[in-house]
Amino acid sequence: MRWETTQTHSLSLIIMNQNVLIHCKPEYLPEIKRLGLNYNISSINEVDVRVPDREYSIEDGYYPDPDEQLCEHYGIDYDQVNCIEAV
Length: 87
Description:
Number of helices: 2
Structural class: alpha+beta
Number of domains: 1
Shape: globular
Distance between the termini: 47 Å
Radius of gyration: 19 Å
Order of helices and strands: EHEEHE
Strand order of the largest sheet: 2-3-1-4
Largest sheet: 4 strands, antiparallel
Strand content: 15-25%
CATH topology: Alpha-Beta Plaits
């Protein structure tokens, strides 16, 4: 039996201009309207906010939660968020 060693290369792909869907609690709707964000009401009664994703940044050597950082950028209270997904 002959074994061969091959070199593999890893590739990192960054997708720019991707949107993110932030699923918020229904009682947060008045604040979403006040912020002027693009939203829809889902079939499960969540407020779905669609925003452009943003680049993750490290702040003074601190690695903040990327979801919290995204919400802070758009003025969304992270405690009112059910989940976040890339779309």
